[in-house]
Predict the 3D structure of the following.
Amino acid sequence: MSDYTIWKDVRVEKISSKHLGVLQNFAIDTSKPDEVELKKFLIEDAYNNQEQDFISRTYLVFHNPDNKLAGYVTLLTDNVHIRNTGLAEQFKAKNIQYDSLPALKIGRMCVDLNFRKKGLGTFLIHVGMRRLLEINERVGCRFLIADVKRGAKHFYKSLGFEVIKEKQKGHIPMYMDMRKQIEYLREHKKTVPFTDIK
Ligand SMILES: CC(C)(COP(=O)(O)OP(=O)(O)OC[C@H]1O[C@@H](n2cnc3c(N)ncnc32)[C@H](O)[C@@H]1OP(=O)(O)O)[C@@H](O)C(=O)NCCC(=O)NCCS
């Protein structure tokens, strides 16, 4: 049973030029091509995609006691394709016949090899959930989505993600429906102010 005590010892920072020197030290399993790609993206693309091309934002998580980079998540807007899925049926029943619905996408996510199984992957998903709720204060956005590696399906499932459509090969498209969290905030007249992440 995990206790997530590590959450008290971490901080989130948006990637910036001051971080570029520490990205090289991010530890991954180099025998796994997916992880090599995730590190390459972090070093070569994450900052430029955010600061030059404005197509994603990358949040870094630092472990305060040793000031080490422990994980990152890259977020961007997208939509969830629902044609021929259970979600389409749900919406059809309300006479909403869209083929896709607004979503926030976890484009990339990785926890440093030395920090895995301590609750940081879950923390990074919560960073995404929080951003979605912030966005939803101003613009409709209900689903958190990801194209999930087969090996990580169990992890996403345990956090409440559902498979959009089963596929034989490649990454599995999954979504988390944030309806309940949005409803809770509305019912209790709570807002999620934009957080001041440095
Ligand atoms: C997938 C990934 C992000 C998960 O990160 P993580 O930090 O290990 O995730 P968590 O620690 O939150 O949860 C992982 C497991 O550890 C368990 N765990 C968490 N904290 C724990 C603790 N303190 N003690 C024991 N177990 C713990 C969780 O319950 C979870 O169990 P599960 O495997 O049964 O779901 C990470 O393995 C990773 O970066 N993998 C390589 C890249 C990748 O796959 N990225 C995702 C692309 S889709």
